[in-house]
Amino acid sequence: MARVIFYLERALLGLINLSFMLIPRPRPTREALDACKIISHRGEHDNRRVRENTLAAFSTSAEAGCWGLEFDVRWTQDLQPVVIHDTNTERVFGIDLVVSQVSLAQLQQLVPQIPTLKQVVDRFGGRQHLMVELKGDELGAYAARAECLRETFNALEAATDYHFLALQPELFDLVGFAGAKACVPVAELNIGELGRVARERGYGGICAQYLLLNKTMISRHQHLGQQVGCGFAASKYGMFREINRGVDWVFSNHAVRLAAIRQKSLRHE
Amino acid sequence: MLATTISAVILFLVSRLLTGCSPCHHSGYGRIVASQLDAASLTPLDLSANVPSISPRFRPGLAWIW
User: Fold this and answer.
1) Which of B18, B37, B42 sits opposite A5 (nearest CB)?
2) Contact A190 B4 (CB under 8 A)
């Protein structure tokens, strides 16, 4: 049943992306294009030749001129942060392994493509803006994990070089060292409630699926000095729509293509 | 505008149907309490009160796209 729902949701999102791909949008102004920040969601990947959330995926995005990289952080059993979206490695790597149930050494032996958080921060920190999505689990030991994250990001400047994202704002308590401005909650359908929480707590902004954010919400956050991110632009017109609406961060699974379109549009201005 | 509206309505209805989640629902976002941040504490954070716990597999909703 879960598989059916998954494919149904995917088909629905595909249809929505298609409808936005077909509706022409005016080319944004040079100023708007200049200000546009394209963020590669999990790096440039197809999960066949290049897997998501790997150094290879991030390198391609960085070389193509994407402003930012978005990736997910989970923890191994011995409390080492690694970059992977799912709790399990099966979908992406074909190996049935639960990340939180193995040590880092075991994980690296069985699935060496999964980078540690430190590897990604060391290689791309300060060059690309890092959008680090924290994932929840039940491993506990929050103080140790908070300290590990503080050390990992010690050389970077919070909110300038990186932001933390989370579907659950509770997770931001792990990154108190970075301050509220470096924390950005991600909404599912709870955009109204989460938007209020973001404004009250002075977070750096909010992210959501592009259909869920309207102009009123965008301006409400921006008037408070917060930034707004939309996922996931899949086409030129989809990206133009978000730029024209003044969205600060455009997340995409096709960031390399969109970055090229942005460059081309700038040349035509 | 029409496409946006239609798409938004479809997304809302289907997601609500699948997840039982409402954008207006007041869930109350908590925080990790101070005792949980103490070095000695190994108590897992209870996220279940706020959002469904993350399953090792897919769960309906929009979390999987992020």
Assistant:
1) B18
2) no
Domains of chain A: 2-267 (3.20.20.190)
CA A198 to CA A202: how far, in whole Å? 6
User: How far is residue A245's CA from residue A79's CA, in Å, rounded to a whole number?
Assistant: 41
Residue burial A106-121, b: 16+ Cβ < 10 Å; e: rest: ebbeebebbbbbbebb
> CA-CA distance, B27 to A244, in Å (whole number)?
32
Contact between B16 and A189 using a beta-carbon 8 Å cutoff: yes
A113-138 confidence digits (pLDDT tens): 999 999 999 999 999 999 999 999 99
A59-63, A67-71, A210-214: segment of lowest average pLDDT: A210-214
Q: What is the pTM of this model?
A: 0.84
First and final C-alpha spacing in chain B: 25
- Rounded to 5°, angle at Cα A230 from A225 and A234: 150
Given an 8 Å threshold on Cβ–Cβ distance, is A140 in contact with B45?
yes
Query: Would you report the helix, strand and coil content of chain B in percent, each value rounded to 5?
Result: 40, 0, 60
CB contact under 8 A, A197 and B26: no
A214's CB contacts (< 8 A; 6+ apart) are none
Per-residue pLDDT tens over the stretch A201-235: 999 999 999 999 999 999 999 999 999 999 999 99
Q: What is the ipTM of this complex?
A: 0.73
Q: How deeply is A82 buried, as exposed, middle or buried, from its count of CB atoms within 10 A (0-12, 13-18, 19+)? A: buried
Radius of gyration of chain B (CA): 17
Measured CA to CA in angstroms, residue B12 lies from A30, A48, A239 at distances of 34, 32, 22
Q: Most distant CA pair in chain A: distance in Å?
A: 53
Query: Residue A198: closest CA among chain B residues belongs to which residue?
Result: B29
